[in-house]
Amino acid sequence: MMSFIDLLTQSDERLVVAAQRAFKEIFGAQITDLDLKRDLQNKPRLFDLIAVINSKRIAIEVKGGSRSLNKVMLNKVQDNLKTFRDEFPAREIYATLLILNDQYSKAPDKRELIAPQMIKDAEQRKITVLSTPILMEIMAMYLSGDLLKTDLLAILSKPGLVQVSLK
Question: How far apart are CA 90 and CA 98, in angstroms?
Fold first, then answer.
């Protein structure tokens, strides 16, 4: 059975499913598994997921593994955004989100920090980078009522590295 702990311990498909469940079950988003849909149509993959919260469309790419944020990841997200806009010009993207479970074999408090130049690069490309430990904090804040849906949307749409702390 999949659990939210997969956000901290998994990569690949299990991580994507955990992120999908978090957005659907916790934040009440409508989710489209874009890769699955495109696989069925024999089209090249784009973003892993599209989440819609309060009519705001969020493109989500999910990455996990031993590597930290890098240019290859940011290039993929940027290329996917361009392709999406070319194919669906009428569908506005409110935010572009990269959910990252880097260094997943290490405990969250033992993981190395993301390089400042990579954070700046993400900001310049208007990509929001959300580590899975911070995603779990946001989930807890949302469930406890310390975070409203409008605050959630503001967090997810601010380019760069998401940083929050519990009150």
Answer: 22
* Predicted confidence band of residue 13 (pLDDT cuts 50, 70, 90): confident
Choose among 70, 77, 86: nearest CA to 127. 77
Lookup: tokens for 100: 């990252």
C-alpha span between 67 and 103 (Å, rounded): 6
Q: Exposed e or buried b for every residue in 128-161, given b needs 16+ CB within 10 A?
A: bbbbbbbbbbbbebbeeeebeeeebbebbbebbb
125-164: per-residue pLDDT in tens? 999 999 998 999 999 999 999 999 999 999 999 999 999 8
As given in the structure block, the two tokens for residue 113 are: 């920090």
Task: Provide the sign of the torsion angle of the four alpha carbons 18, 155, 71, 69, taken in this order.
Answer: negative
Task: Tell me the sheet residues that pair with 33.
Answer: 49
Distance CA 67, CA 78 (A): 19
Q: Is the dihedral of CA 143, 154, 150, 57 positive or negative?
A: negative
C-alpha span between 28 and 152 (Å, rounded): 12
